[in-house]
Each structure stands twice: as structure tokens, then as C-alpha cells.
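Backbone-to-sequence.
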């Protein structure tokens, strides 16, 4: 039996982000190849658009970068005309990078174990804990 889990991206990756005019640009970097395979499968332009729907009237472009275990994402129209023009307090790309890492994806327990190193050469490391800053608590409930 293979259980499906919903986990935040922060368990598999880190992000770099910035903004220019009305676009937000992300680099989502997996910690390892197993995590990258999950990101490549689960982090699509459509899913990122849905995750940011309350803030994002524009479209999303996504490019896989397998040589560096990363995904490049560009959110068009993400800043309601530009950082200086909108009234949101958290409008900069840096804040939206943290929001991207709260996006949840579906993985199997086996895939998660491979991506965080349980049972492999790094198996002495405990799995990443759930943390309120990640937007979820044990059992998948929202904090």
C-alpha cells in the first residue's frame, strides 16, 4: 500500500526570487535528484497559477532545468502593475518566494523517503519537521 501525502515544497527545495516591473521570477532548487523528479512532475505552470490565484491575474511560464536540479518560474502580472504601484505590503518577489515554498504537492511515502534521504546514505538525518511557517501541521491541516 502506497499512501499519498501532501507536503510543502520547502521539504524538497529552496527558492531564490526577485521582481522586475510587474513580474516575479523564481528559481526553485531541489536538494537532490529524487526531489527534483517530484518538483518536475508536480510543479507545473497551471499549479503555480492556481496557488497564486488570489494575487496573480497574469499567466505563469515554467522551464525545467534538469542539469542544475531546478525549475525557473516567471509570474506575469504578479505585482498589480509593479512594486511601487500596488498597495500590498508583501508585494516583492522575496516574499512571494516564501509563499511558493508553502505550495503543497502530492507524493507517495516512498517518494518522500527517497527525496529526504530516509533509508539512503543520509538516513541518519531525521525527516524535516512540520513547522507553522510552512503553512501546514502534521496530518495536512492548515495552520
Amino acid at each position: 500500500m502506497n499512501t499519498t501525502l501532501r507536503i510543502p515544497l520547502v521539504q524538497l527545495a529552496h527558492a531564490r526570487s526577485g521582481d522586475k516591473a510587474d513580474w516575479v521570477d523564481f528559481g526553485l532548487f531541489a536538494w537532490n535528484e529524487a526531489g527534483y523528479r517530484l518538483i518536475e512532475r508536480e510543479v507545473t505552470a497551471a499549479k503555480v497559477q492556481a496557488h497564486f490565484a488570489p494575487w496573480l491575474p497574469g499567466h505563469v511560464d515554467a522551464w525545467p532545468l534538469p542539469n542544475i536540479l531546478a525549475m525557473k518560474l516567471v509570474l506575469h502580472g504578479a505585482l498589480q502593475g509593479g512594486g511601487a504601484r500596488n498597495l500590498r505590503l508583501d508585494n516583492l518577489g522575496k516574499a512571494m518566494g516564501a509563499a511558493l515554498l508553502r505550495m503543497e504537492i502530492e507524493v507517495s511515502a516512498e517518494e518522500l523517503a527517497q527525496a529526504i534521504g530516509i533509508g539512503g546514505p543520509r538516513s541518519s538525518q531525521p525527516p524535516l519537521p512540520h513547522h507553522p511557517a510552512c503553512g501546514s501541521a502534521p496530518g495536512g491541516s492548515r495552520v
